[in-house]
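Re-running the complex after MR caught last week's input typo. The corrected sequence lines follow. Everything else is unchanged.
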Amino acid sequence: MSARARLAAALIGLSALVLPSSALANVLDIPAAAPPQFRALLRAKLHMPPPHSGFESRFDLEAKHGYKVSVVGEGNIVAVEVTKPLPHGKENLLEQLVGSKQAVTAYVTRGIVTEHRIAASFGRLGKIDVRFRPSGRVVESRPGRRCRGTDHLTRQLGVFVGGIRFSGEKHYVAVRSHRAKGRVRTPLHLHCASIPRGVRSDRRARPVPHHTAFNPTFFAATRRHGVSSVELLTLGIGRTTLFAAVTEEGLATMARIRFALTTTHSSKAVVLNDPLTKATITPPAPFRGKGTYRAAPDGTTTWTGPLSVTFPGAPRMPLTGEDFETTLEAGF
Amino acid sequence: MNACGRGAHSALQKGKLVAAMAIALVLGGLLAQPAAASEVAGTQAQEALRFWTPARMKAAKPLDVQRPGQGAIALSESASASSSFETVPDPTVETTRVNGAIFIETPFGLGRCSGTSVNAPNYSVVFTAGHCVNTGGPRGRWLAFRWVFVPGYRYGQRPFGVFPAKWIDTTRKWRTTGSENFDVGAAVVTRNQRGQLLAKAVGGTGIAFGLKAKQVFDIHGYPAEEPFDGETQQLCSGTPFLGHDARSFLSPGPLNLAVDCDVTGGASGGGWTIAGTKTLNSVTNYGYGDDPDTDFGAYFGKEVASLFHRAGRVK
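Corrected-run output:
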């Protein structure tokens, strides 16, 4: 992939986030725990078509060591998502657009999802088989404007009752329960020209300072072999730099997809030289260490260093090496 | 971001190209838009034979898959570095002549894919990738103009003539969602210039649905990007199922299949037969630009069975 196309795709993805319809794309993709805006970005990145109808069932459980476990059902897809939110302070507009700092490991498989039931097996990791008992309480969003089809979201609250058993690899997380509060939301997606008020986050964004120069930088390192891949993306706009790492693995009967996101305002997180022949990448947690990119006059590049990322259940996954393909762009 | 690849997955690589093509699509309106399930305005074999000269066939570029939200197909321009494909020495023998190259005229130029003659009641069914007949998704466009199948193609030769499509279709889910879990297409072709029906001229494979994913496959096709040139039939033989693409889990439908085979653009739609048999059980859909060693194909389940039965009923 050409660097410029990558860059364009990243920017288009970010631009798309401000579109009202995208902002409502609260769908089952990874990380499902991420804010809707980032889900829309990732869905675009993974080239997944937005859903047009249906519903999403979801419940959350607290686990030890600061993990949150969410179970999400949509279509015939069931996902268990293990999330560890990262501490963050006030966010500027860019940070609010792309989502909170976090690390997620999601286990995705095929299962039975109806408005009354979620059932799926995760092999030796566990099994979910619950039925939904609505409490009778329904929450409706305010209607959108100029919608095709339904103009609002409906969340039916209730309790999922049955068997919930999940244990991550080497038991880094474990939940076992017979009931969990949750909801069934319809439809999956609104086709509206504007967002209904009351759905968006009401947190107040700190605007990106006007004096900040728009001097974007983009770095990507990817490694793919067979049915597994690792990808590091770095996007700097003004004083804010976004770091995201995504890994995908197709296992026998499920996919394991990991995702980490963080931002920083440190000017030392990404240091480039003018001809873009050298860059050092030092993201904050959940990343660790430093990666060094070098481009030789003959066009060969190296991507080395102890840079790694920690996902739930996968500490210090390396993000550098000979088999990574790299792209560096700046000042476009 | 790296979901780009061989004849199928490189749309993001070519943003500008795609944009230009989208404009061309809108302004030009050159695509034949068949009615309903896509009956093709009749190109006759003689006319197709005249149009698809060796030079034009050689100039045709691999078709690229349409991405959701994009308005046009793209013609692939990327290349892959290495291959474990082996050239089929004689594509006209009984076991290999069921495989062929597909050529299509699009508003953006001449396109190409691969396909397989499949035994059906009408002796005229070709199976290929969905994106070789329709760009996919609710805004998908039919690729019906001068669509021909050339079995046993080699260096511009058409040993069994050309078989123009008279009907094309895809799985319903490919048309409605563009999900690559359903990227399978079929064509019903007219007689060749000698008046022969396809399966009577070259034979056909069997086809199987609903089998377990874990099979060993022979991968056939006409890859046209480097190191290939699209002029010879290629074969990755005895390639075992590797697993499912993680992204396949994120969309509804059957999980697609991965095998270790260095396929390049142009091989899209090439048949996957179960090794040691003449049973078609998948077709090449896509690969990733940053992993030239892995080929992905759709699982043949109920949707594909339905497509096959629809095609077989066309008179």
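None of the earlier attempt is carried over here. Chain A is about 10% helix and 50% strand. The longest strand of chain A covers residues 126-140.
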